[in-house]
């Protein structure tokens, strides 16, 4: 899966700290997702982020193009 979290934050001119404040998720978890250090993020985490950003989970994570 391709992680679009950093791209979406840039387009919306938001920081990880903004998402942290809006969702209550830990900065560590959000930073790991931002820098793609998280291999398999929890579905509840993705749902909270997607809801906060007003996007779908499909927009947040897209299938790899090489597969």
From TrEMBL:
Boundaries of every HTH cro/C1-type domain copy: 21-60
Gene Ontology MF term list: DNA binding
InterPro entries in the cross-refs: Cro/C1-type_HTH (IPR001387), Lambda_DNA-bd_dom_sf (IPR010982)
Protein name, as recorded: Helix-turn-helix domain-containing protein
One Pfam family per UniProt: HTH_26
Gene3D superfamilies cross-referenced by the UniProt entry: lambda repressor-like DNA-binding domains
């Amino acid at each position: 899966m391709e992680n679009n979290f950093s791209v979406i934050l840039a387009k919306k001119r938001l920081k990880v700290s903004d998402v942290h404040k809006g969702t209550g998720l830990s900065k560590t978890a959000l930073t790991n997702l931002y820098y793609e250090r998280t291999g398999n993020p929890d579905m509840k985490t993705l749902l909270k982020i997607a809801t906060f950003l007003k996007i779908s989970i499909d927009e947040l994570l897209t299938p790899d193009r090489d597969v």
